[in-house]
Amino acid sequence: MYKYFNIKGGVLLGLCLMAAGCQLPKFIDRDSSQTIPEAYVNTRDTSNLASMNWRTFFKDQNLQNLIDTALQHNQELLITLQDLSIAKNDIRLRQASLLPQVNGRLSTGLDKVGRYTSQGAGDASTEIAPGIETPEPLKDYTAVVSANWEVDIWKKLRNSKKAALTRYLSTLEGKNFVLSNLVAEVANAYYELISLDSELEIVQQNIALQKNALEVTKVQKQASRVTELAVQKFEAEVLKSEGMAFDILQQIKETENKINFLLGRFPTAIPREKSLLQNAFSSTIQTGIPAQLLGNRPDIKQAELDLVAAKLDVKVARAEFYPSLDISAALGFQAFKPSYLFRFPESMLYSLAGDIGGPLINRSALKAEFNTANAKQIQAMYNYERAILNAYIQVSNQLSGIENLEKRYELKARQVEALTKSITVSNDLFRSARADYLEVLMTQRDMLETKLELIETRKAQLNTTINIYKYLGGGWR
Description:
- This protein is of the alpha+beta class.
- The chain has helices at 2-21, 54-57, 61-73, 75-97, 118-124, 156-222, 228-262, 293-296, 298-319, 363-431, 437-471; strands at residues 101-111, 127-129, 132-133, 138-151, 324-335, 348-357.
- It has a 4-stranded antiparallel sheet, with no helix packed on it. It has a two-stranded antiparallel sheet with strand order 2-3.
- It starts with a helix and ends in a 6-residue tail after the last helix.
């Protein structure tokens, strides 16, 4: 008994000495210094657009069908789903390291040793049974089950498993972020396509107006009221507008193909309504409060989970400095003849061993690994702070854009109204030779440009509304 306690005490003393000899590098645990503002503007209403399901937010059935297709076939999303599968398998791998590793082995072999060796001389003088010498060569049949287990004294394996689980949750948030971006990207491209349809319609209307002015100019030339220069100027303006129409047709094709790419399919016509630019969304934008970004934005939650996983990695790297305890065992049967293999207890074999080991020479490599893990967790903290700051600035920019674009749209609408009246006046004055043809040309050109700018402004308003929905953390639910 005394001897037993001496051995046990020596083992414990050895553990203590090894642990005390490990002068561990310092763990730098830095908390976030990011303080998010209490409100975007003066209001602190917690009603938030981000809580709305995208099917409710986007009321256009054609757009809903496109988003549904994208969620099923978009390659980037499918790649992200495979990342989820990889992260889930990593959890299983870390879980398995907590359990003993059990192996089974069946083997057979043949062994011939020299007679003039200690083993050969011993075998020659040994009888397996009365009158039966040890066979030569000596065959070997083995059936054994062995196990190895690292005892998780310092929680190294458990922290490694927690880190893998945290990274799985981070990948899940990454998938949600891809979903949010995909929904917004399809919607933005869809309304861009409708805007291009409207622009094409306006250009075609302008071409008809210019052709009518061209015919009037030709009649007036015959009456010697204008020169050939006026006819050529009007004809050049018609050709310019017709060229613009083909440019818009090309943009329509490219935008359709952009949507098809997001949907993971080859070019197909995109069904859409061409009169949805005015009332596509509700005029009320509910942004809630900035603190809600922490729970709604998948990229912020992903950055937070990455930070948690990085801190767990530091703990795992720190545990590498401590001694480890490995237990190994084996149980089975071994004989030189199959008929003797399962004779008990003669053919039985077993072993049990415990190993305690710790780093002595390669501590510089462990320090480098620890310092790398420490730097990564600080890096993850900065990334988390940047994600919060970026989210707030994105929402702030879109809120400012909504206000300014609304004022711009009102001014452009009034400008279009004024130019519409001036078109009629300039045509009447031109027919009565009271206005120069250049005035008519400039008025028509200004009218076309202003109408196109009005559509571009409306498209920008729609994009801003979609983007603020995404930046608030909507679209993935």
